[in-house]
């Protein structure tokens, strides 16, 4: 849904690149933008949940630290692409996991 609106960007990273960059970035935050129910069903260890579809998402991202870099994912990469675009509008550095949570390397 969002990816078609925003297209592919430099902030879109494949799974192995996303994971490596996350591990090597100071002040990195792993952000799961799926619904709380999806989050409870399983997420990447250490991820924080911030539902991009929630009515207060835009107000909540205004409270995020611009000193941190956010590595964002969802189920397929579409919602997270939209979330990354909104974070970037706020001057926050963020990366999208293309392909979603399933693209996160297991090793």
Automatic annotation (TrEMBL):
SMART domains: RHOD. InterPro entries: GlpE_sulfurtransferase, Rhodanese-like_dom, Rhodanese-like_dom_sf. Gene3D superfamilies: Rhodanese-like domain. It holds the Pfam family Rhodanese. Residues 24-105 form the Rhodanese domain. This is Rhodanese domain-containing protein.
